[in-house]
Amino acid sequence: MAKKKLRVGILFGGKSGEHEISLRSARSILKAIDRKKYDVVELGITKEGRWLQSSAAQALLGGESQPSEDLSGETGLTIAAAAAEPAAGTGLDVVFPVLHGTFGEDGTIQGLFELADIAYVGSGVLGSSAGMDKDAMKRMFFAAGLPMTPHVTLLRSEWRADAKKSTRLIEKTLQYPVFVKPANLGSSVGISKVKSRADLAVAMDLAASFDRKIVIEQGVGGPGVKPRELEVAVLGNDTPEASVVGEIVPAKEFYDYEAKYELNGADESVSIIPAKLTKAEEKKIRAMAIAAFRACDCAGLARVDFLMAPASKGKPAEIVLNEINTLPGFTSISMYPKLWGASGVNYSKLIDRLIELALERHREKQQTHFSR
Ligand SMILES: Nc1ncnc2c1ncn2[C@@H]1O[C@H](COP(=O)(O)OP(=O)(O)O)[C@@H](O)[C@H]1O
Ligand SMILES: [Mg+2]
Fold it and tell me: Among this protein's residues, is 166 annotated catalytic?
């Protein structure tokens, strides 16, 4: 008898600002996933948070804003419950949440899968939320002894109550330029580079409109320096492995939303794989990527991003950890798959591996007792 095919749910869209990026990643996966091995079930989430199945999900993927089939009664909970029912025709063996940002990458949907006892690709609740929150992430990295650029975290209530005091606090610890970021977001939304006090308030107000927590970081390399941006793809559960190191050369002063997704042709940001580094630098960066993955208790996959200030005036080059992304862009030409491609794992193999890791992690968890 032929082995039963695994039923894999591909979940895409979502309420986050990265809805469109998610659709791009999902289209790539659906094109490449091995249909001989898997029965693929498409699951879409609209920008309003409605869950869609079958033809309505495909319509969302195809870019139709108003899916023809009305499934407004469906919520994430009912679909997750159906997915968790192996006896029913609706059962899923594993879900791949191809979601970026809020409600997809931040532990919330992972919590839903945990409750429904469904295997899923990627980090669990803690790894996802720690990787999403730049303030919590830095605390984890700090505890693991990983190098970072100096930073200050402020609540927007603190900023709004006393901007002068907040400014003093920032300037006591950091030197301009600084980067002002909402703690929980992605794709550079709400992030500003601030070169002097005159521009600080606008940047703080912008970040405060996106999150209750604001992270202010010292610009790596100092005034007038564009640091190198290095990225490593990590794959695995308890024994994660690191890819070769890649480099992004942003098309703008920093890697903002436009430089990431909107500039095309000659103006495009460029990636270089592998990055030109010394053997020692490469070794150090790959080890740091794995340490960062472990520090946040990640699983499955993550892309770890670094900033490198070039050597100057006798000072050696400085490499710091910037952030970890637990559900990085996943089109066939995104950095994460390209880094694995250059490390000997092609795109469809990578999808296979992530599904295996999801099942492995789910099995491992069965060994846990939840009461005595
Ligand atoms: N401390 C910093 N020094 C220099 N450049 C930075 C710093 N922080 C962020 N950047 C620039 O801003 C971009 C986006 O910041 P990042 O923290 O990666 O946010 P996101 O999670 O939205 O990708 C980086 O890729 C880099 O170009
Ligand atoms: Mg980033």
Answer: no
